Amino acid sequence: DVVTERGAVYVYDAIGSHEQVAVAATGTGREILQPILDRLFSSTTTSSNKERAFLVRDGNFVSAADQQGSSLTLSPPVATVVDCSEQEAVSLLLRGYRSVSEREIAVGDNLVICILRREKGSKQTLETIMKVQSFPLKQH
Q1: Do 41 and 82 meet the contact criterion of CB atoms below 8 Å apart?
Q2: Record's superkingdom (predicted)?
Q3: Nearest-angstrom CA–CA distance, 26 and 137
Q4: What is the full DSSP assignment across 65-131?
Q5: Is residue 1 situated within a structural domain?
Q6: Which of 5, 101, 103, 104 qualifies as a cystine partner to 29, CB 3.0-4.6 A?
Q7: What is the pTM of this model?
Q8: 99, exposed or middle or buried, with CB in 10 Å at 0-12, 13-18, 19+?
Q9: Residue 22: which pLDDT band, with cuts at 50, 70 and 90?
Q10: What distances in angstroms separate CA 39 from CA 8, 32, 35, 42, one per listed residue?
Q11: Number of compact structural domains in the chain
C-alpha cells in the first residue's frame, strides 16, 4: 500500500471473492505450512528478543470466555497485517518452507520469492519494481 507503506496479502476463492489476511498458504504443502506461518508471524522475532519470543495479539483479540453469546457482534479475531521488515518476512517464509520441505517431498528443493514494491515516481505514475530471490530448501 503506497499510503501506509505496508505490504498486503489477499486470498481468493473459486468464485472470485477475496479477503485481506495476515499470511496465507496455497498449493502443495499448504495444510502443513499455514499453521507454521500463523505461528511464525504472530510471535515476536526481533533479534533483540530472540530468547523470549511471545505471542502478540492484536487489539481485536477476544478471549474464549468473552465470546460466548456475542458471536454476531465480534470484530475480526486476527490482524490482517504483519508488523515486520521485508528481510524478516523473507527469513520467516524461508524457515517455514524449509520445515515443510522436510515433511512433504512434492514441495520441491527451491523457494522462489517475488517481492513487488510500488515506488512513488512522479505525481502521475507509480512504478512497480519486482525483486526475485531464490533459496535452496534442502540443507544437505
Answers
A1: yes
A2: Eukaryota
A3: 17
A4: HHHTT-GGGPPPSS-SS----HHHHHHHHHHHHHHHHTT-GGG-SEEEEEEEEEEE-SSS-EEEEEE
A5: no
A6: 104
A7: 0.67
A8: middle
A9: confident
A10: 18, 12, 6, 5
A11: 1
Residue with cell 517431498: 105
Per the listing, cell 512522479 goes with 122
Looking at the predicted structure, is the pLDDT value of residue 51 above 80? no
Which stretch of 7-16, 20-29, 61-70, 96-105 has the lowest confidence by average pLDDT?
A: 61-70
Round to whole Å and give the CA distance between 8 and 21.
Answer: 8
Give the domain extent around 66.
9-107
| Contacts with 27 (C-beta within 8 Å, 6 or more apart), sequence order | none
The residue whose grid cell reads 524461508 is 94
